[in-house]
């Protein structure tokens, strides 16, 4: 870990070449380096332990004692029908949430930017309010409303409840990009005789594409890992997060760790991919 | 509004208005109003609905105030969430400062990359990791026994487990906003203050912290709210004696069978959220747009 030498430290050592002063300047940096190492250990050790426990033959996931190394828990996971159903359901829900939240959030962003400042402030607060609402309350409110309309908990309500706050994320991300949009492009297209729909399809939508892709990705992630809201509207359905939490209660085996390890692996790959895409697009001049 | 139709035409404009209305009315406003309605009605048998007893009442809210066990759990939830907030703030501030101002750009980029990974990992999985770590026969007890720090395995599940799991799950929601806001501070200001003889604590107190207040406010709001509204950590890492307010709400719905009371409790949690957001915005003098970023 490289730490930039502070100007103060350089000045002091150059002037006096006094080793005690040097040590005094070095001490905070040593303490700080130790602090950083401790922090990163804290952040990663639990995940490493969880991952490592996948390879232990012990029936309860742990690394102490190490009873023997095995890959059996991966095949146990592979043949777990309930896990596959939960995974499939989570994917289905996430895709349905994107199908609702992406158009609704984009519409909200366009609506918001075409309002007078005063109305905009009020509506903005209304639109971000789902992000400042406890996930538990979002689930309960959705459940209670649809219960009155004769619809019980299940996939449909999970999608609605999740989309109600994920739309806010989409709105924020689209607004951020819309603010840098130059309306002159639209005026030029209109001057050249393009219809308003054509302008939207050929100018605005392509301009928003990067933020729409990023928003779809965030929406997927938010939906896939949601637990609090889902718990209240799930009825008897079991998406992946509920499946994992239930396993802890009803019989945790390292097969769940294998699942965790795979999900972590996918997350790391996705994080790297997104970072590469982000850097590439950052290097390109913005249109 | 006229603006919208002039820009997008009637068809597309109507679609935009329709989508926004569908979202805000049917998915945000109506559910919350129904929850409010539910919380103000008594829990009745189907036959009694519409009868003499079916009128608005504050009994469900009075029940929370009058039940000593629930009242204590509610207050403990607030107190413990504040503790999670303060702990994460104290732990992450030096790291955020280091990443934003002290580290070389390469080291900072590497640190951000390393931090993003746990940030994206599912909360349930992160909690599961602590469940394994803190288990009675688990690695933490084994390590402490081996080091001779304890001579009996410790039961970590309970208040300690819940707090440890929450700090772990939400710490990056504190770190990233603070890091982002310190990054925008011009380093020249810090150097000028140092050249003029300001001590390190004074530089932080008078320059860095005031500059980073929007980030600190955001981090505080989010960690407090995530902790107060958490369900996974108390459910997995708790013990019967460490119940969380969200667990009480859950029980009203799925074990107590009193949805009206559950809705009232959820509304109390929602009100607490709003108060915390408003108080933080006022205290740090920032507006909602800064926090919602």
UniProtKB/TrEMBL annotation, chain A:
<keyword id="KW-1133">Transmembrane helix</keyword>
<protein>
    <submittedName>
        <fullName>ABC transporter permease</fullName>
    </submittedName>
</protein>
<keyword id="KW-0813">Transport</keyword>
<dbReference type="InterPro" id="IPR051789">
    <property type="entry name" value="Bact_Polyamine_Transport"/>
</dbReference>
<keyword id="KW-0812">Transmembrane</keyword>
<keyword id="KW-1003">Cell membrane</keyword>
<feature type="transmembrane region" description="Helical">
    <location>
        <begin position="258"/>
        <end position="277"/>
    </location>
</feature>
<dbReference type="InterPro" id="IPR035906">
    <property type="entry name" value="MetI-like_sf"/>
</dbReference>
<feature type="transmembrane region" description="Helical">
    <location>
        <begin position="155"/>
        <end position="176"/>
    </location>
</feature>
<dbReference type="GO" id="GO:0055085">
    <property type="term" value="P:transmembrane transport"/>
</dbReference>
<feature type="transmembrane region" description="Helical">
    <location>
        <begin position="204"/>
        <end position="224"/>
    </location>
</feature>
<dbReference type="GO" id="GO:0005886">
    <property type="term" value="C:plasma membrane"/>
</dbReference>
<feature type="transmembrane region" description="Helical">
    <location>
        <begin position="124"/>
        <end position="149"/>
    </location>
</feature>
<keyword id="KW-0472">Membrane</keyword>
<dbReference type="Pfam" id="PF00528">
    <property type="entry name" value="BPD_transp_1"/>
</dbReference>
<feature type="domain" description="ABC transmembrane type-1">
    <location>
        <begin position="87"/>
        <end position="274"/>
    </location>
</feature>
<dbReference type="InterPro" id="IPR000515">
    <property type="entry name" value="MetI-like"/>
</dbReference>
<comment type="similarity">
    <text>Belongs to the binding-protein-dependent transport system permease family. CysTW subfamily.</text>
</comment>
<feature type="transmembrane region" description="Helical">
    <location>
        <begin position="87"/>
        <end position="112"/>
    </location>
</feature>
<feature type="transmembrane region" description="Helical">
    <location>
        <begin position="32"/>
        <end position="55"/>
    </location>
</feature>
Automatic annotation (TrEMBL), chain B:
<feature type="transmembrane region" description="Helical">
    <location>
        <begin position="128"/>
        <end position="150"/>
    </location>
</feature>
<feature type="transmembrane region" description="Helical">
    <location>
        <begin position="103"/>
        <end position="121"/>
    </location>
</feature>
<keyword id="KW-0472">Membrane</keyword>
<feature type="transmembrane region" description="Helical">
    <location>
        <begin position="78"/>
        <end position="97"/>
    </location>
</feature>
<dbReference type="InterPro" id="IPR035906">
    <property type="entry name" value="MetI-like_sf"/>
</dbReference>
<keyword id="KW-0812">Transmembrane</keyword>
<feature type="transmembrane region" description="Helical">
    <location>
        <begin position="214"/>
        <end position="237"/>
    </location>
</feature>
<keyword id="KW-0813">Transport</keyword>
<comment type="similarity">
    <text>Belongs to the binding-protein-dependent transport system permease family. CysTW subfamily.</text>
</comment>
<dbReference type="GO" id="GO:0055085">
    <property type="term" value="P:transmembrane transport"/>
</dbReference>
<dbReference type="InterPro" id="IPR000515">
    <property type="entry name" value="MetI-like"/>
</dbReference>
<feature type="transmembrane region" description="Helical">
    <location>
        <begin position="156"/>
        <end position="176"/>
    </location>
</feature>
<feature type="transmembrane region" description="Helical">
    <location>
        <begin position="262"/>
        <end position="284"/>
    </location>
</feature>
<keyword id="KW-1003">Cell membrane</keyword>
<feature type="domain" description="ABC transmembrane type-1">
    <location>
        <begin position="74"/>
        <end position="280"/>
    </location>
</feature>
<feature type="transmembrane region" description="Helical">
    <location>
        <begin position="12"/>
        <end position="36"/>
    </location>
</feature>
<protein>
    <submittedName>
        <fullName>ABC transporter permease</fullName>
    </submittedName>
</protein>
<keyword id="KW-1133">Transmembrane helix</keyword>
<dbReference type="Pfam" id="PF00528">
    <property type="entry name" value="BPD_transp_1"/>
</dbReference>
<dbReference type="GO" id="GO:0005886">
    <property type="term" value="C:plasma membrane"/>
</dbReference>
């Amino acid at each position: 870990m490289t730490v930039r030498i502070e100007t103060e430290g350089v000045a002091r050592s150059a002037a006096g070449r006094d080793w005690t002063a040097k040590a005094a300047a070095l001490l905070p940096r040593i303490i700080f380096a130790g602090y950083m190492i401790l922090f990163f250990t804290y952040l990663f050790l639990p995940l490493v332990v969880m991952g490592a426990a996948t390879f232990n033959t012990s029936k309860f996931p742990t690394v102490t004692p190490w009873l023997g190394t095995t890959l059996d828990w991966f095949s146990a996971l592979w043949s777990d029908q309930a896990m596959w159903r939960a995974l499939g359901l989570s994917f289905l829900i996430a895709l349905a949430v994107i199908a609702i939240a992406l158009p609704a959030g984009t519409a909200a962003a366009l609506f918001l930017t075409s309002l007078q400042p005063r109305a905009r402030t009020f509506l903005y607060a209304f639109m971000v309010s789902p992000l400042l609402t406890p996930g538990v309350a979002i689930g309960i409110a959705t459940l209670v409303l649809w219960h009155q309309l004769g619809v019980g908990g299940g996939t449909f309500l999970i999608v609605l409840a999740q989309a109600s706050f994920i739309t806010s994320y989409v709105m924020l991300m689209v607004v951020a990009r819309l603010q840098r949009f130059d309306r002159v492009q639209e005026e030029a297209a209109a001057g050249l005789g393009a219809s308003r729909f054509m302008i939207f399809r050929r100018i605005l939508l392509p301009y928003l594409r990067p933020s729409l892709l990023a928003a779809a990705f965030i929406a997927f992630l938010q939906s896939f890992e949601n637990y609090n809201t889902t718990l209240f509207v799930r009825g008897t359905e079991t998406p992946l997060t509920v499946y994992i939490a239930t396993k802890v209660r009803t019989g945790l085996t390292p097969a769940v760790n294998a699942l965790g390890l795979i999900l972590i692996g996918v997350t790391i790959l996705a994080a790297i991919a997104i970072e590469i895409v982000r850097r590439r697009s950052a290097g390109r001049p913005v249109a | 509004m006229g603006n919208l139709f002039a820009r997008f035409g009637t068809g597309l404009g109507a679609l935009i208005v329709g989508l926004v209305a569908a979202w805000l009315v049917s998915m945000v406003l109506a559910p919350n109003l129904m929850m409010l309605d539910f919380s103000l009605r008594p829990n009745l048998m189907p036959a009694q609905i519409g009868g003499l007893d079916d009128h608005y009442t504050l009994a469900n809210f009075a029940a929370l105030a009058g039940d000593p066990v629930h009242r204590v759990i509610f207050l403990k939830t607030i107190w413990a969430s504040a503790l999670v907030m303060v702990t994460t703030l104290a732990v992450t501030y030096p790291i955020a400062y280091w990443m934003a101002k002290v580290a070389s750009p390469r080291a900072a980029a590497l640190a951000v990359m390393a931090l993003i990974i746990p940030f994206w990992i599912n909360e349930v999985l992160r909690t599961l990791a602590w469940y394994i770590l803190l288990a009675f026969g688990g690695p933490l007890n084994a390590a402490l026994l081996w080091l001779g720090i304890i001579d009996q395995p410790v039961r970590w599940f309970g208040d300690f487990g819940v707090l440890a799991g929450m700090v772990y799950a939400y710490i990056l929601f504190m770190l990233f906003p603070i890091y982002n806001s310190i990054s925008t501070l011009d380093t020249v200001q810090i150097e000028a203050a140092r050249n003029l003889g300001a001590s390190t604590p004074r530089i932080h107190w008078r320059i860095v912290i005031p500059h980073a207040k929007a980030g600190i406010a955001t981090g505080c709001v989010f960690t407090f709210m995530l902790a107060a509204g958490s369900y996974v950590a108390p459910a997995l890492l708790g013990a019967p004696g460490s119940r969380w307010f969200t667990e009480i709400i859950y029980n009203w719905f799925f074990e107590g069978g009193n949805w009206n009371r559950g809705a009232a409790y959820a509304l109390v949690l929602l009100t607490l959220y709003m108060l915390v957001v408003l108080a933080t915005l006022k205290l740090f003098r920032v507006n909602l747009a800064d926090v919602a970023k």
